Amino acid sequence: MTELVSYNEPKNVAEAPVSETATTDPIAGVDLVVLKVPPRNQCWDVWDQFKTHKGAVAGAGVFFVIVVAVVFGPFVWRVSPAYIDFTAMNAGPSWAHPFGTDQLGRDLLARMMTGGRVAIAVGLAAMIISIFLGTLIGVLTGYFKSLDGPLMRLTDLFLSLPVLPLLLVAVMLFRDAVAKILGNDLGSFTLIVSIIGVMSWMGMARIVRGEVLAVKQREFVMASRSIGTPPHRIIIRHVLPNVMSPIIVSATLGIADAIIAESVLSFLGLGFPPDFPTWGRLLYDGIEYMQVSPQLVLWPGIAISLTVLSVNYIGDGFRDALDPRLRR
Amino acid sequence: MMSEPGVLTIKPQAGPDDVLLRIIDLTLHFPTYRGVLGRQVGGIRAVDGVNLEVRRGRTLGLVGESGCGKTTTGRVILRLYDPTGGRIEFDGEDITHIQGKKLRRMRARMQMIFQDPQACLNPRMTVGSIIAEPLNEHRALKGKEKEKRTRELLDAVGLNPKFANRYPHEFSGGQRQRIGIARALALNPDFIVCDEPIAALDVSIQAQVVNLLKDLQEQFSLTYLFISHDLSMVRHLCEDVAVMYLGKVMELGPRDLIYKDPMHPYTKALLSAVPVPDPRVERARQRIILKGDLPSPANPPSGCRFRTRCPVAFDRCAAEQPAWRKVAGNRWVACHRAE
């Protein structure tokens, strides 16, 4: 059938079937060789769209600056975050201490940079764990009817667990064991990240389940099944891309929650050791002295807000860029 | 010639009159549950004893009012739902309960065109990858050949091959339906279930799509099951017509006989609702207006299902289910009055 040549020959309208005359657009008559456009890589489409989202670009810029400052800053500003200087307690910003000092005279800039490393690492890692668990369980419960009951009851179980007592018990039980294997700092990092991740996937799982239930009934999933596509490929090709938006939104919000959760843990003495600075810890330590020297809470507060805000905007941009309907 | 995928190019040689798809007494009951313990209290009889024959290279129109089980029947035939009883024979082979690899291979030979052109294309995929999905899934073609085949398919359904890089939302309803048709054609199937492919399109586009389906049938020697509630379209496209009511087929026969001389009272009522484009005839046209609503498929009437709304029902209709009988002129009917 369809010799491509015959398609290009001018056809007498009276003879041609309706289907060939009525819909063809003016460019269709052009030689096919000219029309050969190589399939465009979709990553570039996404990137092009992302660039047009001003908030997302600004957010990405701010986040990049924060990450660079936090990762490489300590190599430039070589003041120890633990050095105590009683001659300069609660000092305001000066050339010696650009961000001021805390109640023990430790340099706030150095503490902010060291603390930022942990805060961002905890935020990202805990978010990745919670996205992974939430999406996995959400997709499984939404797509496979037989798993719906058991896994959703498991989700309810996790939701009903009282968080703080559970954290206390988990830290008590596992801190030493994990510290023995991974060392003190890495041990408590792993423990905190996994506790926060494991305790925060439930909301995500519920959102994803609802979306999957809706997408599963759409006809393109039916079409894919009628082709003979096995379930795991239907999920990867059709279901996951279409539930991306809520995942990204709750993931970006999750980073903020994780940073805050880490600070709560540190405040309760369950997180990192007391002398170990993190943004959340700095914030809580500073609350006592807030009226004397507001910079103690100002800097970590600003840092947390900026990180969360920039990640939110990046997420927004990504969500829009991944949706072809919003592109161009 | 079009570059056709290597799988399934061998077609059994057979006469023009033999049966490609035969459905015998097909049932599909969806169980309903109630109570705390989720006891099964009955079933929705979505498809309840359907008998059909679709002959090779021809089109069978399946008509009936909404909710009578047309779409479900189409989906059971494609094994998208597992039937609870009966037999589906495709090309002489029983496919009622096949699984795994065998089913996957069979799927390539039977495809579906969907009702809603908005919902049947994944909004996140380009048109090219939508059409190439069946080719990927069955590893039929690779690389350059696959790309070529995609372009040819777009061309075959009357779309510009350049559209392969675009997304479904950039197209109109008619164009989207063409994309769906191209996807169904990708694996060069023998049989296509058209599930109300024109119901969601406006009238000017309906004719184009129906004519496209007709052209493609000639080009690729396709067999269609055309599900529709548009009786004039069915008359235009189909050689045989089956009339369905509440999960059962009431009448099956060649188009001309059914339209000229319907035997089942339900068919008569349906046909009397079709307007005639001639004012004089139209004014004189007698309509048979059915009373009452479609009974619940969870609890169908005893005996003949249509008896509650039938204008010519008598006591035997409530007592005894009419048999599916062959009558003169190669037609089948299930009605006591037709004996």
Describe this structure in words.
Chain A has helices at about 5-10, 20, 40-50, 55-75, 110-145, 145-160, 165-180, 185-200, 200-215, 220-225, 230-240, 245-265, 280-285, 295-320. The two termini of chain A are about 35 Å apart. Chain A has a single domain, classed as MetI-like fold (Orthogonal Bundle), CATH 1.10.3720. The model of chain A is unreliable at about 1-35 (pLDDT under 50). Chain A is an all-alpha fold and about 325 residues long. Chain A is about 70% helix and about 0% strand. Chain A has 14 helices and no strands. Chain B has one domain: Rossmann fold, CATH 3.40.50. In chain B, the strands form 2 sheets. Chain B has an 8-stranded mixed β-sheet, sandwiched between helices. Chain B has a 4-stranded antiparallel β-sheet with strand order 2-1-4-5. Chain B is built from 11 helices and 12 strands. Chain B is α/β, with parallel strands linked by helices and about 350 residues long. Chain B has helices spanning about 70-75, 100-105, 125-135, 145-155, 175-185, 205-220, 230-235, 255-260, 265-270, 280-285, 315-320, and strands spanning about 20-35, 40-55, 60-65, 85-90, 95, 110-115, 190-195, 225, 240-245, 250-255, 325, 330-335. The radius of gyration of chain B is 21 Å and the shape is globular. Residues about 5-15 of chain B have low confidence and may be disordered. In chain B, about 30% of the residues lie in helices and about 25% in strands. The chains are: A mainly alpha (about 325), B alpha/beta (about 350).
